[in-house]
Design a protein that fits this description.
globular; three-stranded antiparallel beta sheet; mainly alpha; about 150 residues; Arc Repressor Mutant, subunit A; about 65% helix; single chain
Amino acid sequence: MTDPVDWLTTEEQHAWRSFVRLHERLIGRLSHLLQTESHLAAADYAVLVNLTDVPEGRQRYQDLARALEWEKSRMSHHLARMVRRGLVVREDCPEDGRGAFAVITEAGREAIAAAAPLHVRAVRSLFLDHLTADELRTLAEISTRVVEKLDDEA
């Protein structure tokens, strides 16, 4: 026998659906802006941001996949496309014959440098400009708490 479902209250359902709509619309608009203005897909941008955040601009495929919450096959296929475009290179891992590193190239650095100001302006105009300082702090606290809980359960 399964546990009974603890259905969402009207207020919970409204909050959840509003959050989902917000996320979908923001990501959709940001993705569209990035693609049209910088010719980078949102996934490219996410990979490049992660690579610029680590020393030497290199990260193991599996660690990058974990950071982005992607399946290994998605990461592998996406990085292969980025390699073909010259944004990253693949380096074998000397300690692990099955492992590999994704390393940002100069072209990848130039692409992220060009896209980042567009991204920041869009984040401000689409999202941050509509929040008060208190709302922003509350959002950060809520987001941090939920992410920490998800990370603890992983």
